[in-house]
Every structure is written in structure tokens, then in C-alpha cells.
Amino acid sequence: MAISDFTDQLSRSLEGLVATVTDPFTDPVVRLGVTGLSRAGKTVFITGLVANLLDRGRMPQLQAEAAGRIEAAYLQPQPDDTLPRFDVEGHLAALTGDDPRWPDSTRAVSELRLSFRVKPQGMFAGLMSAQTVHLDIVDYPGEWLLDLALLDKTYADWAEDTLTRLAKRAEGAEFLAIARAEDGALPLDEPRAQALAAAFTAYLQAARAAGWSDCTPGRFLLPGELAGSPVLTFAPLPLPASHGRGSLWREMERRYEAYKIKVVKPFFRDHFSRIDRQVVLVDVLGAIHAGPRALEDLRRTMAEILGSFRPGRNGFLSEILLGKRVEKILFAATKADHLHHSQHGQLTAIMQAMVRDARDRAAFAGAEVAAMSLAGLRATVEDRVERDGQALDVVRGRLMSTGKQAAMYPGELPADPARLLSPAREGAARWLDADFALMSFAPARITLSQGDGPPHIRLDRAAEFLIGDRL
After folding, report:
1. What is the pLDDT of residues 79-137, one digit of tens each?
2. In contact, 210 and 199? CB cutoff 8 Å
3. Which long-range contacts (CB under 8 A, 24 or more apart) does 67-70 make?
């Protein structure tokens, strides 16, 4: 173990010890991480969840609310003064205004604290006063989470894996030609290194736009203040016969290692390692629409994501020796409002099957893992139309492109997920006997009644799984 790794682990262990000793004398805190890949709907999920926890008229499956034990819920200043606050008010205004629109997507880590005043339960509840429970929601880009898998890969391994993957994708053809023509044994030329990094970034952007999920390193897509720095100026290159000191390949290797040490590890140390409940949002419908290869890519990406977690029950010894562990993980297929409710069961089954291998590993380690389909904000209504003499269950909503109302029948999802996952694993180029449509709907104009949050699908069930045991 490297000295820096040992120091990080010791620091987390001491934090766990302090928390274990002081927790009995402080208000309990649940740290909930929310992540997902591009277009999965993290911002909408958090906004809808917070709005519906503040006004709980649409949360019947949250047991503490159904039992009347939540006396109040309110926003408080977040505990970390170094993080931006999640702008729930601004996002909610965008979703529910006179001209509703989707808010901007996640670009960096942000945080929000929502506190509950909860009546106690049990035999001696009448002798105890209400307790305050804090929910700290940490929003971070899924691309950063995928970077954690790089910690276990050398530059040579990562470069080989990435170039092999590019060879199977049309979006990678241009960069692959450039990389194969490069001689990594030649001395470093900085303008050339910058050109290679720019070409690789262009591939990542094109791959993400095409629906591919494994677009790492994630900071190439969300560089922020690191734009143009050496830690973002590298690219995968074939291993040359020789790569001495000062060569292009050796410098690419050095910058890759610097990216892991100075970008990935601080994220793990400062944010990820402190999370004890986690939501991973997944745009399963988008992957199905993109085709079998995109769906298989997403399945493998989900396995890598779960491999980044440290699942298991938080306890005295685990916190002292290993730091905090993720106790509960929810994999949620978003945009369930793009389907009639009669197909939600199929979408959930596909989500469960996609994460089966990784889910079993986490469950074996002691974490509770669940999969469901949901929508942070319901943008459609259900309808039935006649087509060619056949009645079809559809959803109807306002199109992003024109603002006009349109009905969508996306196709019939199979009852058996293997009908999709098997051809995806086999590398099929397209679905053999079906096409799956997808439309981009804008948020619907809504009028909220007193005490009701925005309309959603299964946010109450998600909240019950994630935090119900702490309320």
C-alpha cells in the first residue's frame, strides 16, 4: 500500500471513529449520494424528491408520513461550506413556472441539507420528544464516479482497453487512426500532446452524444477549472517497442497517473467515501432506443459503478477500520413517465436484470440493493388511441421541439429481459423484431394544491427504501 493511500485510509478511519463516538450526542445524519450518467435526470430527481419531502401530499408510501410521525421538514444551511449549494428553488421554479423547462444538468458536486422533525415510535414514544434527522443530499456527475475504476488500472491497461473499445465504434474511427499513426517513442512535443488530448475529448463528446456510457476520464467532459491543465492533456496510445524517459508515451503515462492522484483520489476522499446511501439513476429507455450495443455498454458500466462502492452495514469496527460503507444502493430507471404504467413492470425487470451480477455482489457484502423505475417529475399523462383497428396504451405530452401535444407509443417492452439483454451481450447491431421509439417531452404545466409536491412516479417508494428506516 502506498504511503498516500495509507494516509487517506487512516484519515477516513479517524473520521469514522470521531463520528462513532459523537453520534449518540448529536442529531442523526444520513448522507445520500445521487449520481447517474448523462441525461439520466439527476437534477430533476433531486428537485422532485426535495419538493415532495417538503410537501408530502403525494408521498403515501413513505411510512413515517403515512403514520403521521413527520411533524415538519425544512431546508437548512448545508454542513460543508466549501461546496456549492444545490439550487433547489431555482430548479423547481424552472420546472413549475408558466413556461416550464428542464433545468441545467449537473456540472460539479453540490450539496443540500433537508431536516425532519420526527415523532419517536415504540413503547416509550410518549415519554420522548421529537427527534431531528438531517438528510444531506450530495449531487455529483456520474462520469466522475466511473473514474474510480481507473484507480485499479495502469496507463498501459487503460490505453489498451480504450483503443480496443474505440475500434468497435464509428465515433472512435478518427481518433483511432490518429493514435495508431503516432509514435509514442518519440520525444514529447507539447502541441502534439494537446492535439491528441483534444481529439480524444472530441471522441468522448461524440460517444456520449451517441448514447455510449463508458466515457472516461470523466473530467475531460466536465473539466471546470482544470481545462487546459496537464492532468487533462493525455490520451490513450498504443504501447511502443521502447518508451524511454522524455518520450511521448512515458509523459502520457505520467499525466494519467497524475489524474488519478490529483483528481480522482481527492473526489473519493472528500466526497464519495463519506456517503452511506446511494442512488444511481439510469436512462435505460435511452439505451434501448440507441440499440443492443448501447444497452450492453450500459450493463457493463453499471457493474463497474457498483464495483466502486464499499457496500455493507456501517458499524463501530467497520467505521474505525475501513471508513464509512454504503449501506443501501438504489438503481433507478428514470423517465418512467415515457411509458404507460402497464409497462413499468417490464422496465423495472430490465433494470434488475442489467445489474444482476453486480447487485448480487453488493447484497452478499451486506448492503441492501434495490431496482425500480421512476420519474422525478411526471411530464406526461396516459391515454389510449386506436391504430389500425388496435387499441394502444400511450403517453401524451408537450414536445420539446415544437411545444405541441403528441402521443407516443414507444413499443412493447418484453416481459422477459433476456429478449433484450441476450442480443445485447452477443453484440447484435440492431433489434431483430422490434424498434423502440423515444420522444423528448417538455415539463407539463401544472397547478399544485396546498401540501402537494410536483407529480412524480414512485419517489415515495424510493424515499422509503433510502431513508425510511431513519425516520
Report:
1. 889 889 999 999 999 999 888 999 987 778 899 999 999 998 765 566 667 899 999 99
2. no
3. 67/121, 68/119, 69/118, 69/119, 69/121, 69/471, 70/116, 70/117, 70/118, 70/119, 70/471
